UniProtKB/TrEMBL annotation:
Organism: Calderihabitans maritimus
Active site: 248 (nucleophile), 333, 335
Name of the protein this chain belongs to: Carbamoyl phosphate synthase small chain
Task of the protein: Small subunit of the glutamine-dependent carbamoyl phosphate synthetase (CPSase). CPSase catalyzes the formation of carbamoyl phosphate from the ammonia moiety of glutamine, carbonate, and phosphate donated by ATP, constituting the first step of 2 biosynthetic pathways, one leading to arginine and/or urea and the other to pyrimidine nucleotides. The small subunit (glutamine amidotransferase) binds and cleaves glutamine to supply the large subunit with the substrate ammonia.
Domain Carbamoyl-phosphate synthase small subunit N-terminal: 1-131
Pathway the protein contributes to: Amino-acid biosynthesis; L-arginine biosynthesis; carbamoyl phosphate from bicarbonate: step 1/1; Pyrimidine metabolism; UMP biosynthesis via de novo pathway; (S)-dihydroorotate from bicarbonate: step 1/3
GO molecular function: ATP binding; carbamoyl-phosphate synthase (glutamine-hydrolyzing) activity; glutaminase activity
EC category name: ligase
CDD domains: GATase1_CPSase
Keywords per UniProt: Amino-acid biosynthesis, Arginine biosynthesis, ATP-binding, Glutamine amidotransferase, Ligase, Nucleotide-binding, Pyrimidine biosynthesis
Length: 370
């Protein structure tokens, strides 16, 4: 069956549909990772987006039982050069096309993904329509132009957990604010022995503190951080109470809670080889990234917070460190999945802050809270 991707700039790509049939809008973005399509498809941060991969052969190792970052595909469309129909891997349980079809996600193959990516890189991410069957291309472009943009949509409520749940461990108690958490963040905390209490994004600071946590983890998640004011409010009320570690959307919300502004990047960072420099040590890490927004460094209060990491490709903010409190965050993904695990030490750093918090309590403006 035929399939189309129409962009708001008037470009229409025609290819072959696989997975589900129908029509859906989304923000069209590209990821440059050479592997890890199962993790990308199931990462809740992609909710609201139609994702294309620059790597041309996709589906070769099928879908397995282990590489899920959430229970289902979260992308709103998937565009590839060539989709493999006969996967070969000992872990494979299902074909990519069956997996997408089962969850109503449209896939499109036979697309010149290099041309598509170059377009997105030149003009920025665009609204798009992915559709299967016979279609009028001009009408699809019109629909793409009328589709809602990513900003302004309430996407976090679509992917956050409905109820709190606890994964029992032996070491520190971590409350994880679930804005659309990737499973590998939970796996890392579990590996370090933490008890993880996952709470919905709308949970208040009082409710979180009632769990008596040693630390608070702010997860990744979809959409524009400006559309999550309730998360910012909660984080603001948690500052100074417990150690806090934010990842990606969690980092952006923390930045906003500290008074900074966020803005949209032209085409975002999505891939497994983004170089990030730790400004304190001068060391460069190769990181896994997936974000379309960033913190505006000019809006940070230098008395309160410092930029701890920057991206070496475009100089954007990649990490924050509070100057007085045990509070830090990164824009990239130390949990990897997919991508390099160079930055796993950040989880150890969080453990360290929780250990110190247990011993000394937190110092807020010179007053111990314990
Ligand atoms: N992975 C994430 O948490 C992404 C954060 C945010 N949705 C962005 O695109 O910038």
């Amino acid at each position: 069956m035929k399939g189309y991707l129409a962009l708001e700039d008037g470009t229409v790509f025609e290819g072959k549909a696989f997975g589900a049939t129908g029509k859906r809008h989304g923000e069209v973005v590209f990821n440059t990772g050479m592997t890890g399509y199962q993790e990308i498809l199931t990462d809740p941060s992609y909710c609201g987006q139609i994702v294309t991969l620059t790597y041309p052969l996709v589906g070769n190792y099928g879908i397995n039982d282990e590489d899920f970052e959430s229970q289902r595909p979260q992308v709103w469309g998937f565009v590839v050069r060539e989709a493999c129909t006969i996967p070969s891997n000992w872990r494979s349980r299902e074909k990519l096309e069956e997996f997408l079809a089962r969850y109503g996600i449209i896939g499109l193959e036979g697309i010149d993904t290099r041309a598509l990516t170059r377009r997105l890189r030149s003009y920025g991410t665009m609204r798009g329509i992915i559709a299967t069957g016979e279609q009028d291309p001009d009408f699809l472009v019109e629909e793409a132009r009328n589709a809602p943009g990513l900003s302004g949509q309430q996407l976090v409520p679509l992917v956050t957990s409905k109820k709190p749940y606890i994964i029992q461990g032996q070491s520190y108690r971590v409350v994880l604010m679930d804005f659309g958490v990737k499973q590998n963040i939970i796996r890392w905390l579990q590996k370090l022995g933490c008890t993880v209490i996952v709470v919905p994004a709308q949970t208040t600071a009082e409710e979180i503190l009632a769990y008596n946590p040693d630390g608070i983890m702010l997860s990744n998640g979809p959409g524009d951080p400006k559309d999550v004011p309730y998360g910012v409010e909660t984080i603001r009320n948690l500052l100074g109470r417990k150690p806090i570690f934010g990842i990606c959307l969690g980092h952006q919300l923390l930045g906003r809670a500290l008074g900074a502004d966020t803005y949209k990047l032209p085409f975002g960072h999505r891939g497994g080889n983004h170089p990030v420099k730790d400004l304190r040590t001068g060391r460069v890490y190769i990181t896994s990234q997936n974000h379309g927004f960033a913190i505006d460094p000019d809006t940070l209060d230098p008395d309160i917070v410092e930029v701890s990491h920057i991206n070496l490709n475009d100089g954007t903010v990649e990490g924050l460190r509070h100057k007085k409190l045990p509070v830090f965050s990164v824009q990239y993904h130390p949990e990897a999945a997919p991508g390099p695990t160079d930055s796993e030490y950040l989880f150890e750093q969080f453990m360290q802050l929780m250990a110190e918090g247990r011993q000394n309590g937190l110092e807020v403006d010179g007053h111990a809270t314990k």
